[in-house]
Each structure stands twice: as C-alpha cells, then as structure tokens.
Amino acid sequence: MSATFSSQLMRSLFSAGSLIAPGLAGNLAFRLFSKPWPVQALSAHEREVALIGTQKLAEANRFRVSYGTSEVQGYHFPHKAHKGTIILVHGWTSNASHLMGLVAPLMEQGFSVVSFDFPAHGQSSGRTTNIVECAKALQCVASLFAEIHGIVAHSFGGPVTGLALAGISAGKPGFEAGRIALIACPNEAAYFTRGFGDALGLTSRAQTDFEAEFEALCECPLESFTGSHYFSRIDRPMLVLHGDNDCEIPHAHGLRYGELERCDFVSLKDIGHRDILILPEVGERIGQFMAA
C-alpha cells in the first residue's frame, strides 16, 4: 500500500469519524499526533548527512538517563578546555545524529557538547511522546551537567527548549542556560495542530476536541503557546537562523523570534529546513555566538 493511498484512506476515515463521533476523532487525532512517524523518504543528500552524523556519534561518550518509565539516550563530547556545556536539541522525527555537523564548530571554541535522542526517537525508549515529555527529557539531561552555557535547537527542538527553560508547568521550574541559538524553529503551536487537523480532514468540533487535549497537556491556551511567549520570559541572548526557502517551517516564524529583545535574527538565502544544519556558515555563527 503506497504512502499516498494510506494518507488518503486515513483522511477519509477521520473525515467520516469527525461527523459521527467528533470527540472520539479528536482523541484519536491527538494519539496519532503523539507518534513520531518515520520520514517516508530521504534525499540522497539527507541520507549522506545522516550517515556522517551516525559516524560522528560513534566518537561520543554514551549515557542513558531514566525518568518515569522511559530511558533517554545521550551523547557527550567532552573538551579539555571546557568553557561550558552546549546541549544540542533535535527536531520531531529526527535524532541526535542530524546535529553532528555543529559539534566541531562548538568544540573549536572550547565547549563540551551534549546531545540526546527525544523519547520515542533514535536510541531512546518509547513509541509515543509529546512536547512535555521531550521537555522533561531535556531537563533530565541538563541536570547531569554543572554548567549549561548554551542550547542549540533545531525545528521542534525550539519550543521544547522554551518549555524546558521557562518551566514545564506551575511548580516545575526550568533550568539556566546562558545563550540560546534556534535554527529553523516554529513559533506557534497552532501552526502544527491546525495543519495536522487539516491533513486529517477533522471537522471544527473534532479539531476543538483535539486541540483541547493539547491544551490540557501543556496547561495553557493554544493561542498562548508561542516561542515568543516562552523565550521572552527566559530573557537570554538569542541567535535565530532561518532559511528563506524553508518549506516545513515558514520564514515568518523566524521573523517573529527576531522581534524579541536581545535576539539577533539571521535570514539565510536559498536554504531549506534540513540543509541549514550542515551549512558551514551556520556552525561558524553559532560557535562565535556561544563564545561571545
């Protein structure tokens, strides 16, 4: 069965189900939303990048972090100079290997580098996860290291970082990180929930029920769940890089981050959502920013 046919069949089922039982359709949509389906097809270039990243991970000191019933796989690149630790945070349906092009530029500046696989991603345990679980995983990884000098996040890793730093919910404080670099990150959670609902053909009632589950999980209204909101509370120097040819996360999301105080926004011409991770200019700018 082709991926296209499967998608069409799923949309037909959800469209019909939304009319008959919108609450159930909304609940099932949220469950589906919580599963990181593997990317169906990678370009030859993306496969090459993934292979290089996997080879780089072989050089890391590996560690496991337990929280709840899950185990997160982590990777540590220690530096003798150790000017601080930089944590790399990957995106949805991605894994730590995709960020390995950033390790060398950061280590050249004297930083130790840490990365990890989200729950239900890479070598971590689990089959489903969500933004809150990923933020908790980031907090657990950060707790293992004395000084977090900075965080570099790509795509979905941006809002995960914002949630983890600002505090996941009342009574669950965040942690300190001196500098933050965001690469091609979304600003609005609604961009994903609305797009997901449209792809499934949810009715407005089913969409409301689906988004209500997201709001209950994050303990805030959907419209308030923006990167701008969370990072404005953190008040740290920020570098935001976004390609103007990003077909997954529109360039406008990066511009919204650029409106924040203490934020330097860099627009990169003719660069897409994943190619940006291996652009030498990106690694150099982030390394310089973290060392400033």
Describe the model.
This protein has 292 residues and is an alpha/beta fold. The chain folds into two domains: 1-33 and 202-223, no CATH class; 47-188 and 226-291, 3-Layer(aba) Sandwich (Rossmann fold), CATH 3.40.50.1820. It contains eleven helices and eight strands. It has an eight-stranded mixed beta sheet with strand order 1-2-4-3-5-6-7-8, with helices on both faces. α4 (103-107) links the parallel β3 (85-89) and β4 (112-116). α2 packs across α8 (204-218) and α5 (131-142) packs across α6 (157-166). It is globular and about 60 Å long. 43% of the residues are buried. Mean pLDDT is 90; it is low at 1-5.
Helix-strand blueprint:
Layout (H helix, E strand, L loop, with lengths): L2 H18 L1 H12 L10 H14 L3 E7 L2 E8 L7 E5 L13 H5 L4 E5 L14 H12 L5 E7 L2 H10 L12 E5 L5 H12 L3 H15 L8 H8 L3 E6 L7 H8 L4 E6 L11 H12 L1
Parallel strand pairs: 3-4, 3-5, 5-6, 6-7, 7-8
Antiparallel strand pairs: 1-2, 2-4
Helix pairs in contact: 1-2, 2-8, 5-6, 6-9
Strand order, sheet with most strands:
1-2-4-3-5-6-7-8
CATH architecture of the largest domain: 3-Layer(aba) Sandwich
> What do we call the CATH homologous superfamily of the largest domain?
Alpha/Beta hydrolase fold, catalytic domain
The CATH topology of the largest domain is given as Rossmann fold
Number of strands: 8
Jot down its keywords:
single chain, 292 residues, alpha/beta, 2 domains, eight-stranded mixed beta sheet, 17% strand
Q: Could you give a short description of this structure?
A:
The protein is an alpha/beta fold and 292 residues long.
